[in-house]
Amino acid sequence: MHKELLNRWKKIKKVALSHEIKDELKFKFDGEVLFDEPMREHTYIKIGGKADAYLIPKSLDGLITALKIAAENGIPTFFHGAGSNTLVKEGGIRGFVISTYNSLSRTEIKLETESFLDVEAESGLIFSRLIHLAKDQGCLSLASFIGIPGTVGGLVSMNAGTREAEIKDVVRSVTFLDKDFQIVEVSRENLEFEYRKLKCPRTHFIVKAVFRLEKNATPEKVAEEIKKYQKRRQDTQPLNFPNLGSMFKNPILQGQKNQLTAGQLIEEAGLKDVRVGGARISPKHGNFIINEGQATANDVLALIEMIKDHVKTSSGIALETEIKIIGEDL
Ligand code: EPU
């Protein structure tokens, strides 16, 4: 057992960051650098091993510097938002985790007419701030997104949404930093959105996006709508426990009307309230796994596999995860 642990330690240390790279980050990078940073501090479900370096750029230049250091040294990079949809394994992350959460988070009105506003928001802005900006302007367009946790970059990259709307319905353009560190603005017609996904190369970093907000109500009316959606969430989702939102995509079967949602399929398979270690399938909503305090990534992964197996057996449907799973096994 001791030998096994030692080998594991050696394997991790072999690829950990050198002193030179750490120094380069300390001296050149415009932003905050956290070495050996526990990812449980940066995920909503409060799970995850340590990242070699967790980087919070203060400027676009800072972001470019981090990406260049990574590219020159063959270091993997992981783009992270607020961590509301990411499960990090217990072995942590070898490489740089880069998050603009709350750092690159400005907004700017790009265009205003009598009927709409085009607002640009940087990737690190927490999306609820944009929802409240829309409310103050009397725009209903974002009200139904209330309660989807995460940043502008995170919600755009996964085309987040509800039964009412998806990001693709409100976005006008997205600005990326590409693999050659060039800024590229792509308009809506040329963006390829799928269910819970924006198709773009893995190396593209979302810098900002423009949202079209229709002026179609009063701020009071929007506030009322927001309250209604908040109540629905409170009533149907286990928001008092750390969680990852919907774990699985709702299945879309060609030609099938009234297809059951992932939550319904999990309930029908009799899996609600099942526990593995500190992780539990929520008794309130089958598509949520909650951390009761001491859950590990392996507990959550075991529940995911159990759900996939049982739902496949009971309904014939192969559920796909909606969440992002990253990091290494211990
Ligand atoms: N239901 C059950 N049992 C359950 C859970 C749900 O019977 O255990 C039933 C509900 O009663 C309802 C139906 O299933 O009739 C749909 O449930 P819900 O309204 O909760 O919607 P959902 O499809 O499960 C989607 C989004 C959520 C979003 C809600 C509300 C996906 C994968 N999930 O959930 O988004 O909050 O609609 O609009 O599309 C997220 O993406 O992380 C997320 C939370």
Draw up the topology in text.
Layout: H1 2-15, H2 19-28, E1 31-38, E2 50-57, H3 60-73, E3 77-80, E4 86-88, E5 93-99, E6 107-112, E7 116-122, H4 127-136, H5 152-157, E8 171-177, E9 183-187, E10 192-194, E11 197-199, E12 205-214, H6 219-236, H7 262-268, E13 275-276, E14 279-281, E15 289-291, H8 297-315, E16 324-326
Parallel strand pairs: 2-5, 3-5, 4-16
Antiparallel strand pairs: 1-2, 6-7, 7-12, 8-9, 8-12, 10-11, 13-14, 14-15
Helix pairs in contact: 2-3
The structure holds uridine-diphosphate-2(N-acetylglucosaminyl) butyric acid.
Count of helical regions: 8
Portion of residues within helices: 25-40%
Give the strand tally. 16
The overall pLDDT average reads 94
Hetero compounds: uridine-diphosphate-2(N-acetylglucosaminyl) butyric acid
Structural class: alpha+beta
The main sheet orders its strands as: 6-7-12-8-9
| Alpha-carbon Rg, integer | 21 Å
Structure explained in plain terms:
This protein is an alpha+beta fold and 330 residues long. The protein contains eight helices and 16 strands. It has helices at residues 2-15, 19-28, 60-73, 127-136, 152-157, 219-236, 262-268, 297-315; strands at 31-38, 50-57, 77-80, 86-88, 93-99, 107-112, 116-122, 171-177, 183-187, 192-194, 197-199, 205-214, 275-276, 279-281, 289-291, 324-326. It has a five-stranded antiparallel sheet with strand order 6-7-12-8-9. A hairpin with a 7-residue loop joins β14 (279-281) and β15 (289-291). α2 (19-28) packs antiparallel against α3. The longest helix is centred in the C-terminal third of the chain and has 19 residues, at 297-315. It is globular and about 55 Å long. The structure holds uridine-diphosphate-2(N-acetylglucosaminyl) butyric acid. Residues 160, 162-163, 236, 245-246, 249-250, 261, 263-264, 267, 285-287, 322 line the site of uridine-diphosphate-2(N-acetylglucosaminyl) butyric acid.
